Amino acid sequence: MRYEAERQFATLTEAFAFTLDRYAIRPGPERHWLQRESGLVIPREMPPYLFRGECGDFPTTTSTAGRAASYLHSGGKSLTRDDQNILRRLVPIIANRFVAADYELDEHAAWGLLQHYGMPTPMIDFTGDLSVAFSFAVGEVADIGRVAALPLNVAKGSGLLVDLHDHKWAHRAQQQAAFALVAPTYLLDLKSPAARAPMQLEWFEFPVTDADRAYFASKQRKLLNISDDPSAGFLRFHLTEYVEANGKFSPDLTEWLLERVPMAPRCFLVDRFEGTEAVVYYRGYDALSRFDPSVEKESSRRYWSAGCTDGSFDRMTTWTWPPAGSIAADPRTYHPDLYTNQAGLVAADSTT
């Protein structure tokens, strides 16, 4: 059955006013009791509905892992079957790295981090903030915007909901007031009647104008910005580690990764030393004096691609910890010695 929205609006303004009143303001926040790791149970106000924004006339809504477009290059070329299989094996391996003791995430929180920084997972994104949903609903060049409303109590009752709103490590998920559904077989498509009826999920549709895009542009840039994101360099760093241990990717898979994974350094403030161990606090690349995204992208291409012979670990042979109080970055993810631009910080594309 073809997708049809529950309501169609003449303008984005009308759609926003309707959903704000009916699903955000009038029901009011709900109090939920959450148990922390310490054992304390604390109250927390939660939105009565979760929202999802989409820009474009997409007939289906599936997880990124189940979406054919997830495996396309920006030019429309698909990854080979072998590369897709490598990627499907790679995702749980990298996710498991975030379950390790230095991150201590559970499986779903690890997937949530990967989801927000470019890797396909079984998750479908939602947010507790209506304005975030609308900013994504106008974020592309398409002239159709859609927003879905999902009752929080139904989502929680399904056992499929993952709360990423206060994610321990993923700054972008925090910024986006993120939640996600981990999609089982019967929820492969959130526009299908089989998913919409039991989830009480409603879709709203409206035209998107250039003025709408301009209005939400600054908010979307903030939601996707990596310059002040202390988590943005994690995925690039661990992919580099993976290649060091397991070998390089094909040139095509490398380009696919370079289009999606933020080309940020793993940047940190060295706080102090406890014996031989350094205690660090992660920072965005805006803490560095210089940053050139084109050089960083080319460096990762050379490290990851089987079409190149460079090895990343060579940069570790002479590296030593700087003194406490210093801002530093892992040298495999930061290459200021290769920069030709001496003018200072260069802003990176917020989506790559």
Question: How would you describe what is shown here?
Answer:
With 352 residues, this protein is of the alpha+beta class. The chain folds into 2 domains: 7-63 and 122-224, no CATH class; 234-338, no CATH class. The protein is built from 11 helices and 12 strands. The protein has helices at residues 12-25, 81-97, 107-116, 130-137, 152-157, 171-175, 193-199, 210-224, 234-246, 251-260, 293-304, and strands at 7-8, 30-35, 41-46, 49-55, 123-127, 144-151, 161-163, 178-182, 202-207, 267-274, 277-283, 327-329. A 4-stranded mixed β-sheet has the order 1-9-6-4. A hairpin with a 5-residue loop joins strand 2 and strand 3. Helix 4 packs across helix 8 (210-224). The chain is globular and about 60 Å long. Residues 342-352 have low confidence and may be disordered.
- Tell me the overall shape: globular
What is the gyration radius calculated from CA atoms?
21 Å
Please state the structural category: alpha+beta
Low-pLDDT runs of 5+ residues are 342-352
Instruction: Determine the mean pLDDT.
Output: 91
Beta-strand residue percentage: 15-25%
Largest sheet: 4 strands, mixed
* N-to-C series of helices and strands: EHEEEHHEHEHEHEHEHHHEEHE
Spatial sequence of strands, sheet with the most strands? 1-9-6-4
Separation of the first and last Cα atoms: 36 Å
Number of domains: 2
**Estimated helix fraction:** 25-40%
Number of helices: 11
